[in-house]
Design a protein that fits this description.
Helix content of chain B: over 70%
Mean pLDDT of chain B: 88
Strand content of chain A: 15-25%
Largest interface: A-B, 33 and 34 residues
Number of strands of chain B: 0
Oligomer: heterodimer
Number of domains of chain B: 1
Structural class of chain A: alpha+beta
Distance between the termini of chain A: 33 Å
Number of helices of chain B: 15
Largest sheet of chain A: 5 strands, mixed
Shape of chain A: globular
CATH topology of the domain at 353-415 in chain A: Dna Ligase, domain 1
Distance between the termini of chain B: 31 Å
Mean pLDDT of chain A: 92
Number of helices of chain A: 15
Strand order of the largest sheet of chain A: 5-25-24-21-20
Structural class of chain B: mainly alpha
Largest sheet of chain B: none
CATH class of the domain at 353-415 in chain A: Alpha Beta
Low-confidence stretches of chain A: none
């Protein structure tokens, strides 16, 4: 390596916003620090440490599990050792913006399950809410402690070419991934103590205690010493490691549906000393599986009678039942209006520009610009049915045009976002790869945001898809102290 | 705020019990295979691999899958065969799956070690089990099981699950010793050979070595070695970790600790069965056991151990008898 060169000398951000270096004419304040730190390593040493880190993740069982007929296969989420860095001022925006969003979502959920003001006043169309698959009529009129419906919210953010953070999606049901945030940090601290020393990085290790406090806030107020549990679908669930991680960090029992039962509208768990009361449940199973007497009758994961105990206020559930009607893609499009409606404030974090095809202007614009837009069906998740205009064939464009005309309310459209990149170790070289960010907002009586969040990285060259099922990995995310 | 230490989920108790059992089973199997390879020849002077199948009462399952009880078949059956639930890979896999369910309560080190151990077993091939290699493989497996025991001792939080884990281990240990006694005693009973002939002594050596008891026995009996002495050592000795008497005494202590230290009221049937078994053992001397019939007495002990295990699972964990192991 020549004089003055460092590990990032040959790195080319290829015109994208870079989380380490910044954008055109807008270098980040932390770029020199990162260059200096990384400069202490040779590429070979970086690769060696990356191998150690990967092996350790596997050995520690920080894995998601795939079960086949004969085998139990543990897979790790690929981990990239070059951290994603967020400045104190950027974090301030993300933190305030995420809290604002969760506040608005909670007011929205309270409203739609009670008086429905936002619908009566014509801000959000009724069928968007009441026709939503995740709307739960059973929640109408049910009081939720502190009006706190979404106790854990994952706000998916991307950063565009000009360096602005934008919300891509709200995850208000059972967002996952927080265990990787904490474990990635621990991994970095073990593997790269020399890279991190003397840098003020906001800690992430108190997530479990913050979550426990928030969930305990929801327990019936008459109980002074509430018993909190984490309800998991069990060892066969792909996110089981995260459930274990959180139960340990919170110091609460990890239970499965069969460990609980309901008697006289109260929830109990089966212990070696007989039954013991349960007052608040951080549940990692979907609404539909919670209680076979009320929701999906086929569910073996849930607890018969649980919903009855919940409605009577004898047990708290985090997140509340029925939050899914607030994080759907169609409602997302209305989120700026929802924030203004309840808070009389402008959104701190912008949505990605979204054209609502159920509205005439939105439909016309979408049809006129199909080649440049990303069209998304509102009812789907996991990337299904999305048509990316600039990458679509003529047939695909014409196909989605026909669908749009036939059923415009099923679609929204958005411009292609030029996702930011982060230097990433790929086959022994440092290359730019696209990243997103999922901060976690924890809300009991008040909201707290875990500094940082999960940075997912699309490890394939040029790919914008960060999902682990499609070649995504993760990075440690550093929020620098002010 | 209550945390999870005041009580234990019934399901966790059952998983802890089986974690202890499976680890002990794997270690015991590794010992038996190793010793059989090196020390044990039957009275006709050949290594008798069939006896291991008999020892574990696996004749039916074995005969279904293999034609002859050759070295390669028996070793494969007991080390690598994933379809055999009592193979070492199956036992460790089951231990790991129970540990997975227990991850909220066991230490990270316990989980991590077991995870790595299980993964390393998955890479074993029949080639690794050639006669020249078997001893080394068995030694590694034993060491890994002992490492697990050490990590557990050093890191496992002493809540109820610790005691259930120990109870599982002692139940399995006692069960293994009764099987060994029963089968080996009969196989090794001198037929046409004089007691004390060289082959005979090597058999008793092997039996003791398979329970890591040869040197311990020698401390009790510096000279000589009779079948009766060995049987009595394995049944009654209160200092030898794998003797029936010590295993039962340990189970008794752990159950008492659960009931007095953690205020559990369950377990009265298990305690009664245990008292009964210990009384039966205490009522015997080496001579009366032989007169009564060692086979009959081993059989009785095995039935009692099964009943105690079932009672513990029913009373503490709410698991109905005949339910599968988790």
């Amino acid at each position: 390596m020549g004089e003055g060169a460092d590990l990032l000398t040959a790195y080319d951000r290829q015109g994208h916003w870079c989380e380490v270096l910044g954008g055109d004419g807008a270098p980040t304040d932390h770029a020199p620090m990162v260059r200096d730190r990384l400069g202490r390593f040779s590429l070979l040493e970086l690769v060696r440490r990356a191998e150690i880190a990967e092996r350790e993740l596997y050995n520690l069982g920080i894995t998601f599990t795939v079960y086949s007929e004969r085998d139990v296969i543990d897979r790790i989420l690929p981990f990239d050792v070059i951290p994603r860095i967020i400045s104190a001022s950027d974090w301030d925006v993300i933190e305030r913006g995420s809290k604002q969003r969760v506040t608005a979502i909670n007011l929205f959920l309270h409203d739609v399950y009670h008086e429905g003001r936002i619908i009566k006043e014509g801000v959000v169309p009724a069928e968007l809410v009441y026709g939503n698959a995740y709307y739960r009529e059973q929640m109408r009129g049910v009081a939720v402690p502190h009006g706190s419906y979404v106790n854990v919210c994952g706000v998916d953010l991307v950063r565009d070419g000009s360096g602005r953070f934008k919300v891509l999606e709200d995850n208000a049901r059972t967002p996952s991934g927080v265990s990787y945030v904490v474990e990635n940090r621990h991994m970095m601290q073990r593997t790269f103590p020399d890279l991190m020393e003397q840098i003020g990085i906001r800690p992430v290790s108190d997530y479990g205690q913050k979550l426990l406090e928030a969930v305990a806030d929801l327990a019936p107020s008459a109980v002074t010493d509430p018993q909190v549990v984490l309800l998991s679908p069990g060892v066969y669930n792909a996110a089981y490691f995260e459930h274990v991680f959180l139960a340990r960090e919170m110091g609460v029992p990890l239970v499965e549906g069969s460990d609980l039962f309901v008697e006289n509208d109260r929830v109990w768990m089966r212990t070696t000393a007989g039954k013991a009361p349960v007052h608040a449940i951080y549940r990692r199973i979907d609404d539909a599986f919670l209680d076979p007497e009320v929701f999906n009758p086929e569910s073996l994961l849930g607890v018969p009678g649980l919903f009855g105990a919940y409605v009577k206020g004898n047990v708290a559930l985090a997140n509340a039942v029925g939050t899914g009607c607030a994080d759907d893609k169609a409602v997302y499009a209305y989120m700026p209006r929802i924030i203004r409606f309840y808070l009389d404030e402008d959104p701190i974090l912008d949505n990605v520009d979204t054209h609502i095809c159920r509205e005439r202007e939105g439909l016309e614009y979408t049809l006129a610009n199909l080649e440049r837009l990303v069209v998304k069906p509102v009812g789907e998740s996991g990337g299904y049915g999305i048509v990316i205009g600039p990458r679509a064939t003529r047939e695909e464009i014409e196909d989605v045009r026909a669908k749009l005309i036939a059923n415009p309310s099923n679609f929204i459209s958005q411009p292609m976002i030029d996702l930011s990149v982060c230097p990433t170790l790929i086959d022994g070289m440092i290359e730019p790869r696209h990243v997103d960010l999922r901060p976690f907002v924890v809300t009991g009586q008040s909201s707290w945001v875990l500094p940082g969040g999960l940075t997912r990285v699309a490890l394939r060259r040029g790919s914008l898809i960060v999902n682990s099922s499609q070649g995504g990995g993760s990075k440690d995310t550093w929020v620098l102290e002010a | 705020m209550t945390i999870g230490t005041k009580f234990l989920l019934a399901r966790y108790a059952d998983c802890a019990l089986w974690l202890g059992r499976y680890m002990e089973r794997a270690e015991s199997l590794a010992r038996i295979l190793d010793v059989n390879l090196h020390f044990s020849r039957d009275s006709r002077g050949t290594q008798n691999w069939r006896s291991i199948v008999q020892l574990n009462a696996d004749e039916k399952r074995f005969d279904k899958a293999y034609d002859v009880a050759s070295y390669a078949n028996v070793v494969h059956f007991y080390v690598l065969d994933r379809d055999n639930p009592s193979s070492i890979v199956s036992a460790i896999r089951s231990a790991k799956e129970n540990a997975r369910a227990l991850r909220p309560t066991i230490s990270t080190e316990m989980w991590s070690h077991l995870n790595v151990f299980n993964n390393s077993l998955a890479t074993l091939t029949p080639d690794d089990l050639k006669p020249s290699e078997l001893s080394r493989v068995c030694a590694t497996i034993k060491e890994q099981c002992q490492t697990h025991a050490g990590i557990t001792e050093g890191t496992f939080f002493r809540d109820q699950s610790w005691y259930f884990c120990l109870i599982g281990r002692e139940l399995e240990r006692a069960d293994q010793t009764t099987r060994l006694l029963d089968i080996k005693y009969h196989l090794l009973l001198p037929q046409d050979q004089r007691v004390g002939s060289p082959v005979d002594v090597s058999q008793w050596n092997a039996l003791l070595r398979s329970v890591a008891g040869y040197h311990a026995f020698r401390r009790e009996h510096p000279r000589g070695m009779s079948p009766k002495q060995v049987a009595a050592f394995l049944l009654f000795n209160m200092s030898f970790p794998r003797s029936i008497a010590l295993c039962l005494s340990d189970i008794d202590a752990h159950l008492h600790r659960l009931r007095s230290g953690f205020g559990l009221r369950a377990g009265s049937t298990a305690m009664e069965l245990l008292d009964e078994t210990r009384a039966a053992l205490g009522g015997h001397t080496p001579d009366t056991v032989i007169q009564y019939g060692l086979h009959e007495f081993s059989d009785y002990l095995q039935r009692q151990l099964m009943a105690i295990a079932a009672a513990i699972r029913l009373e503490f964990c709410g698991v109905q008898p005949e339910s599968d192991a988790p």
